[in-house]
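Why does residue order matter? Because the sequence determines the fold. Keep that principle in mind as you read this record.
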Amino acid sequence: MSESTERLLMLIDDEPAQSRLISALAAREGWRTLIVRDSESAIATLGTRQGMQLGAIILDQWVPGDDACALIAELKARRPALPILMLTTSASPLLAVEAMRAGATDYLVKPVSPDRLMLALRSATTREAPRDELQPLTEKIAATLDFDAMIGTNPGFRAALAKAAKTARGHGSVLIEGESGTGKEMLVRAMHAASPRAKTQLRIVNIGSVPVNSIESVLFGHEKGAFPGAFDRQIGAMQHCDGGTLVLDEIDRLPPMAQDRLAEALQSRQVRPIGANHRFRIDVRVIAASNWPLEDLVAGGVFREDLYDALSTTQITMPPLRSRPGDIPALARYFLHHIGEQPGLRPLGVTDGALALLAAYDWPGNVRQLQATLFRAAVFCDGDALTAQDFPQLSEMLGDAQIVSSPVQDGVGIQLYTEDGNLRLLEEIEADVIRLAIGHYRGRMSEVARRLGIGRSTLYRKLGDLGIEGSNAA
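Structure:
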């Protein structure tokens, strides 16, 4: 018997329409769905012959209501290895934290896209080595809109930000390329906020999440009766964003027919809805984002060259996180600061051992995956700082042999915590700061004192008290 026929999904849901939709989506991935309508039936099902064959559970929070987390905990206690995904209409970080602590594998806010639902189910039930904490979770923290808040000193990353900041002041099309999770959407929002169109409409259309037969209608609109099922007139995204900015995410997945219409619209600056004899003149700035180099797709004959030329007036490439490991400590501290502000969580530090572990991983999901990993670790951390022990799956995957250096030893930052998660002595931290300043300003003690906000005599006294060898005064 094949693996696809062995997988059984239990859906705890009392909404027939939603149950049919989820069952149909799961069937595409080879799942057979067992639907139960209430908590008692769900618990009882675990002890049946079918219950012993379950591969995953999807729980709609609406069924048990306020007792959803208690139900998750009960299901997890009876079947610890069974992945549980919770569907909810609430975007509350507190509920996300409570659900994860109760044992939920992932937390999905309705309406959830088919792709997001299936990715969560596929990720939760993968039969690879344990890596639950490395799967991308629904992001609970609002994205920043400021270039200054985008963390990183890597030259390639800074060059991309500088180019984006300069381009933001214009009106031409922009193509942003980079792997999933590298921060393309955050960059787009920062560009819009810094642009002359900042107070106008911004709309993001994810091409990959729109059905192929609907994409032209979504982008260009349609007239009533233009095709079977077109019961009303629909205004397309390009017309809707007239005067503003339209972001086409995953542009590499745009089907050929829609490529033709988009190329024509960008060239003529006019849009003709499906079924219409008239056109609308539009003023729209188009920012396209792609997970793959479009130039390669053009060379392969799957993407129109004239559309590529129209979109890439300015081209920006976001580097993957594995090419900027030196930025990981600053990113980790930045994320932990914001994670600590979420309801149900608290501020946490991170030890150098944990940072070394994080820097050793190659992060195929990039910055988004790092944020999700830190979020999950923070939910379950009992100490005051994350240590290497808070990332057990990561440690298992890497092994100690691959962690060869600490980010602190590479000059990235100052060690604040001991390996057991406690703060170091203040005089030890102060000594490290002074050593770092002396090295950074090449022994120019006047500059060191000025930057540290102390007098030269105070600096020399501290050098003696802390046993630090100074340099010749500059």
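The domain at 426-466 is CATH 1.10.10 (Arc Repressor Mutant, subunit A).
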